[in-house]
DNA sequence: CTCCAAAATTGATCTGGGTCAACCGGCCTT
DNA sequence: AAGGCCGGTTGACCCAGATCAATTTTGGAG
């Protein structure tokens, strides 16, 4: 009996790509896109799988197409700091040392557009606009990183959680449109490791916010009942 | 009577520049350097002066030539997070929003090479190698930022201080050569705001390290008596 | 030199968030 | 439907580091 298998072509049209407008490739014209199409290869990862690990030699770059990823660094004794969550359109893997400087896991099912390092490097070589785009993304990330330093170093647990909810919602808004229902695909532990807190503190803060009628904890996320109040708590 | 004034020319030869090899300009050839020379202008700042402030519209980029700067962000209530210290060779001011995303003060006397935004942007426009160099610097900074997130979110006070001393020494090594005497031009408050601690905790940790014979607190810095012990404390 | 202000140190006490531990509930497997 | 597991919540207690409060030291300015 013939097995039932879904055949995924090695590549698909960039023109149909969901992240076409936001990702690195937004800087490419129609002609370049045709060539670029053959460079990338769609790859799926299931929940919890590691896409690449810190200190691994970089063999590929990744353009996240679908799903969410956690980007993190581990200390020798197992302490973990999540340095960011990746969403569709995010470009991962750039570094100068030739090794990844953080690890990346799939949170839920994930699809990436994977580029082998060498051909991608060759393609980029003389394309000023693509390099500019990558530079722009790097600078944007640098800003986010600095904002997150402020959060980690100088904000209270309440402020951290409130700022996280708003920031996460904001990113989803620009992806799927505005909503006061905020899906949280990541675990409480992930949130804790992102905010420099413990899982218990995150949980307690959530319930505190719920008791105060500011949010409602729903299955797989939260609902922002009083966004203004959350903003006040985040105290910019 | 003729006043005694030191006349500083608007520009000096890049070829003589102290940071020629390490800074952005390391990517330029001899011909480009001649043109580049006329773009930058040496400017001096004295201790404590602010070179640019967060949210200011970006009118210039800066290449730090001499001295040390603190780069920081403030919360509305005055809490401060220092996101980094700049040393000679560091390039400051890149952003995509058109506004600076952190403030920068001189720690002690500082000399910068200042570039007006527009002409610099024009110069960079079609110079792939310069853009690549800037990109490289951005990615390097991004790594540092992520490392610092781990420190802020997941390390104890002792680890933070030990890691800071080692990291700072490391940067000075690549600038002035190896030494176990580590000058600390920044105040205790600066160190505290960099590490997400209070001034008292930094001070106490220093004295604790000194009591244990690991460092010696000297005028304007510390001396690493037992670098191996400090590395053990920093616990990578 | 003396005086003053700012920076740093030190001590005493407090507390936000961590730690430890019990428990709950959804969901998968048998 | 029973059992078990895993993620999340809740409670009791603790402690690293913050806060509050004096000193002490340092560095100019006169």
Topology:
The structure is a homodimer of 236-residue chains.
Chain A: H1 30-37, E1 40-45, E2 50-52, E3 60-74, E4 80-86, E5 91-92, E6 103-116, H2 117-125, H3 128-154, H4 157-176, E7 181-183, H5 188-195, H6 199-211, E8 215-218, E9 221-224, H7 227-234
Antiparallel strand pairs in A: 1-6, 2-6, 3-4, 3-5, 3-6, 7-9, 8-9
The structure holds a DNA duplex (30 and 30 nucleotides).
Account of the 3D structure:
The structure is a homodimer of 236-residue chains. By secondary structure, chain A is an alpha+beta fold. Chain A has two domains: 14-151, Jelly Rolls (Sandwich), CATH 2.60.120.10; 155-234, Winged helix-like DNA-binding domain superfamily/Winged helix DNA-binding domain (Arc Repressor Mutant, subunit A). Chain A is built from seven helices and nine strands; from the N terminus they run H-E-E-E-E-E-E-H-H-H-E-H-H-E-E-H. The first copy, chain A, has helices at residues 30-37, 117-125, 128-154, 157-176, 188-195, 199-211, 227-234; strands at 40-45, 50-52, 60-74, 80-86, 91-92, 103-116, 181-183, 215-218, 221-224. In chain A, helix 4 packs across helix 7 (227-234) and helix 5 (188-195) crosses helix 6 (199-211). The longest helix of chain A has 27 residues, at 128-154. Chain A is globular. In chain A, 38% of the residues are buried. At the A-B interface, strand 4 and helix 3 of A face strand 4 and helix 3 of B.
């Amino acid at each position: 009996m013939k097995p039932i298998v879904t055949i995924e072509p090695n590549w698909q049209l960039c023109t149909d790509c969901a992240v076409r407008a936001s990702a690195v490739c937004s800087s490419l014209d129609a002609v370049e896109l045709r060539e670029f199409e053959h460079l990338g290869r769609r790859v799926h990862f299931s929940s919890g799988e590691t896409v690449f690990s810190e200190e691994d030699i970089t063999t590929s770059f990744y353009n996240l197409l679908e799903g969410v990823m956690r980007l993190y660094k581990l200390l020798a004794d197992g302490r973990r700091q999540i340095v960011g969550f990746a969403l569709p359109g995010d470009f991962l893997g750039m570094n100068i040392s030739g090794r990844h400087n953080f690890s990346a896991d799939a949170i839920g099912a994930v699809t990436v557009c994977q580029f082998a390092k060498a051909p991608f490097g060759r393609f980029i070589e003389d394309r000023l606009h693509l390099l500019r785009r990558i530079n722009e993304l790097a600078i944007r990330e640098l800003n986010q990183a600095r904002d997150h330093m402020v959060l980690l170093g100088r904000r209270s647990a309440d402020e951290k959680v409130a700022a996280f909810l708003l920031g996460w919602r904001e990113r989803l808004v620009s992806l799927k449109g505005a909503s006061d229902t905020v899906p949280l695909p990541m675990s409480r532990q992930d949130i804790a490791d992102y905010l420099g807190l413990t899982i218990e503190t995150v949980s307690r803060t959530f319930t505190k916010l719920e008791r105060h009628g500011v949010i409602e904890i729903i299955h797989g996320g939260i609902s922002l009942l009083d966004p203004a109040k959350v903003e006040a708590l985040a105290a910019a």
